[in-house]
Design goal:
Chain B: InterPro entries: ATPase_NBD (IPR043129), Gcp-like_dom (IPR000905), T6A_TsaB (IPR022496). Chain B: This is tRNA (Adenosine(37)-N6)-threonylcarbamoyltransferase complex dimerization subunit type 1 TsaB. The structure holds two protein chains of two kinds. Chain A is an alpha/beta fold. Chain A contains twelve helices and ten strands. Chain A folds into two domains: about 5-125 and about 310-325, 2-Layer Sandwich (Nucleotidyltransferase, domain 5), CATH 3.30.420; about 135-305, ATPase, nucleotide binding domain (Nucleotidyltransferase, domain 5), CATH 3.30.420.40. The longest helix of chain A has 27 residues, at about 245-270. Chain B has two domains: about 1-100 and about 175-185, ATPase, nucleotide binding domain (Nucleotidyltransferase, domain 5), CATH 3.30.420; about 105-170, 2-Layer Sandwich (Nucleotidyltransferase, domain 5). Chain B is about 25% helix and about 30% strand. The termini of chain B are far apart. At the A-B interface, helix 2, helix 3 and helix 8 of A face helix 1 and helix 2 of B. Bound molecules: zinc ion (ZN).
């Protein structure tokens, strides 16, 4: 007998409600994935404003849930379990989703599972490519996180191999976009400009790649500063800024470091599958370079389609389904939202 | 009519059940914890505990009443998200009520009075009521100072009695009886949207000119 899992996501600026069907054999099908974004309200501030995001979550939560049930042609009473992002993320934003999820669980009389947003980014790949091999590696890259993870069991056992020591990759995109006069969020406009530019035009630094640096950690703060320095130098000399070349060279540096470290981790641990997910996974150069390097190293590369890579409720429903299937105990209704939930805590 | 009432606009995390027959409100069970940092953790457990004590299931609830502030934002949203999702999940309506009106509904002033709550940042939320408890002014947010009436209910009144120049009366926080009483006139119509009374704009500044990294 299959089960319906409702997933609720509110860790940043997207209010997401997803519905999935968990089959007895452990496979999971996507039924609905509705997202309301407040990104436009943050654009003029150049980054997510927590209070604005929290207000938008409260407004969007029930309407988004309604749309998901309509899309899936299901009733609320069809739900067998509810999963919600318990962290990490913005405290006030998480609180809206967690509060709503508890109330849905209480109203419907079904179990609640507070789950990890980062694990959700990996679990979502099973909706497109089927069960994950055990173990596999995951590279999470987005505006909020940059992490290299070893996944022995998506429902229970995730280990961090490395993460960014300063900015997330997506943050560096936003800051460089600002330097280049491109709009927020910076990922799509830089990707677009980079396609017209020469990635070898400027040799920007590759952070954390020295012999003494932590093998699997990342740093993008120096790169961001180097780009700003280069642009200011050109401005001072009265030169036109070759926006496309700067974008392409910056993007090359990001993609180079991310893929080099991920492939190295795979080789050293003898793991044959790499999943790349998170908002930056949609970046064209990152996926292209990852494909080249994984192919050369004989590693299977899995990248969920862009719609699944960004924050959504389907990823939380998918993770919830795997947690339910693994027989993990349900959460109590007094759980807290944890803005700093560590990645190895898959469910709370 | 069985009503579930929720309010998280003050440091009190409040949930309870009451029956409403005509104008008579009778409270069956009420759970209150004073903890400004635990709204998200406690509100749903309080709802379930109150239902258990009242000997009812949530399926039997006919309507929800929710205090919509004004109140410090994060805690307020915990209760409102809970009320909205409970109403959706149970297929019933949720009726908004100004949390200051809920305080005023059980205050026994016998003369015009204020309801005042703590807005933090050395400010208060307040509204003024006539002798019958009908709102005459507000809600507003501002620094505490004399507001033209000598009597006030609410935790903000206790906190700033000197600055407001008031004699304080009960209650300190919205109660289940106050919430249901204040919402009663709205039960005859379609419920208004469950929209928080924020009264303040979000703290956010648009970035100025980009800082240069080179001198
Ligand atoms: Zn994310």
């Amino acid at each position: 007998m299959s089960r319906i899992i409702m997933g609720i996501e509110s860790s940043c600026d997207e209010t997401g409600v997803g519905l999935v069907r968990l089959h007895d054999d452990g496979t999971v099908d996507l039924l609905a994935d509705e997202v309301a974004s407040s990104v436009d309200q943050h654009a003029r501030f150049g980054g997510v404003v927590p209070e604005v995001a929290s207000r938008a979550h409260l407004e969007a939560m029930v309407p988004t849930a309604n749309r998901a049930f309509e899309k899936a042609d299901l009733k609320l009473s069809d739900v067998d379990a509810i999963a919600v992002t318990a962290g990490p993320g913005l405290a006030g934003a998480l609180l809206v989703g967690v509060s709503a999820a508890k109330a849905y669980a209480a109203a419907l009389g079904v179990p609640l599972y507070g789950v990890n947003h980062l694990a959700g980014h990996i679990a979502v790949d099973t909706l497109q490519h089927g069960p994950l091999p055990k173990p596999c590696l995951a590279l999470l890259v987005s505006g909020g996180h940059t992490q290299l993870l070893r996944v022995d069991d998506i429902a229970t056992t995730i280990t961090e191999l490395g993460s960014t020591v300063d900015d997330a990759a997506g943050e560096a995109y936003d800051k460089v976009a600002r330097v280049l006069g491109l709009p927020y969020p910076g990922g799509p406009p830089i990707d677009k400009a980079a396609k017209q530019g020469d990635p070898r035009a400027i040799a920007f630094p590759r952070g954390m790649t020295g012999p003494r640096d932590a093998k699997f950690d990342f740093s993008f703060s120096g790169l961001k500063t180097a780009v700003a320095r280069w642009v200011e130098g050109a401005e001072r000399r009265g030169e036109d800024i070759p926006v496309n070349d700067v974008a392409a060279s910056f993007q090359e540096a990001v993609a180079d470091v991310l893929t080099a470290k991920a492939v190295r981790a795979a080789k050293e641990s003898g793991i044959g599958t790499l999943v790349i997910s998170g908002g930056v996974a949609a970046n064209s150069r990152l996926s292209e370079l990852a494909r080249e390097r994984c192919e050369a190293a004989g590693i299977e590369l899995r990248v969920p389609r862009p719609r699944l890579c960004t924050d959504n409720g389907a990823m939380i429903a998918a993770l919830g389904a795997h947690v339910v299937a693994a027989g993990v105990r349900e959460s109590t209704l007094d759980i807290s939202a944890n803005p700093a939930l560590p990645v190895h805590v898959v469910s709370v | 009519m069985l009503v579930l009432a929720i309010d998280t606009s003050t440091p009190a995390v409040t949930a309870g059940l009451a029956t409403l027959a005509g104008a008579d409100v009778s409270v069956l069970a009420e759970r209150v914890t004073i903890n400004p940092r635990a709204h998200g953790e406690l509100i749903t457990p309080h709802v379930l505990d109150a239902a258990r004590e009242a000997g009812v299931t949530l399926r039997e609830v006919d309507a929800i009443v929710c205090g919509v502030g004004p109140g410090p934002f994060t805690g307020l949203r915990a209760g409102m998200a809970t009320a909205a999702a409970l109403a959706h999940g149970l297929g019933i309506d949720a009726y908004p009520v100004c949390s200051l009106d809920a305080i005023a509904a059980t205050a026994q002033a016998g003369e015009p009075f204020l309801a005042v709550t703590d807005a933090r940042r050395r400010e208060v939320y307040w509204a003024a009521y006539d002798a019958d408890g009908h709102r005459a002014d507000g809600p507003h947010v501002q620094a505490p100072e004399p507001l033209g009436l000598p009597v006030a209910a609410g935790d903000g009144a206790l906190l700033y009695a000197d600055k407001l120049a008031v004699r304080t009366i009960e209650p300190r926080y919205p109660t289940v009886a106050g919430l249901v009483t204040a919402a009663r006139p709205s039960f005859d119509a379609e419920p208004a949207p469950l929209t928080p009374l924020y009264l303040r704009r979000p703290d956010a500044t648009e970035p100025g000119a980009r800082k240069r990294v080179t001198a």
